[in-house]
Design brief:
With about 150 residues, the chain is mainly alpha-helical. It is built from six helices and no strands. The protein starts with a helix and ends in a 5-residue tail after the last helix.
């Protein structure tokens, strides 16, 4: 019982961290980030990746070890939709992550990365889409918690 509660807690923390880092990135990103902002964006993206990994591991531990069992979850359309949305978020996140990693050399040299307007638009659209999809994941979790879809 305590282990189940701990895993549930870790699951919530991971979701909140993902949402928080995405929102931070979306708010902070601009055409001419300061060196400090560029470093913060890189760190936020690292924490985002760590939280996504924790969410995945803890989530599947809950499916296979705790809660209602894999048969319940894999027969629930909202669970399947959660997984599809999670994969979509992961795929969309590749673009911002690659861009932030590409800034590494400049940032280590103390230079500020330039973000051309078209790239800024694409990055902000990607981050915004991720935020919307994360909200969809949370909605699916809420619907599942109320027994819908089973």
């Amino acid at each position: 019982m305590v282990a189940s509660a701990l895993f549930s807690f870790l699951h919530f923390i991971a979701v909140l961290t993902i949402a928080g880092t995405l929102f931070f990135e979306w708010l902070t990103l601009n055409q001419a980030p300061s060196l400090a902002d560029a470093r913060r964006l890189q760190w936020a993206d690292r924490w985002y990746g760590i939280a996504a990994g924790v969410l995945l591991v803890v989530g599947f531990a809950r499916v296979f070890r705790f809660e209602k069992g894999k048969d319940y979850y894999f027969s629930n359309p909202f669970f399947i939709l959660k997984i599809v949305l999670f994969i979509a978020v992961g795929l969309i996140s590749i673009y911002p992550t690659v861009r932030f990693i590409a800034w590494g050399k400049l940032v280590r040299q103390g230079q500020v990365p330039a973000v051309p307007a078209p790239e800024l638009t694409r990055l902000r659209q990607a981050l915004g889409a991720e935020l919307v999809l994360v909200a969809g994941i949370v909605l699916c979790a809420s619907l599942m918690a109320k027994g819908l879809g089973s």
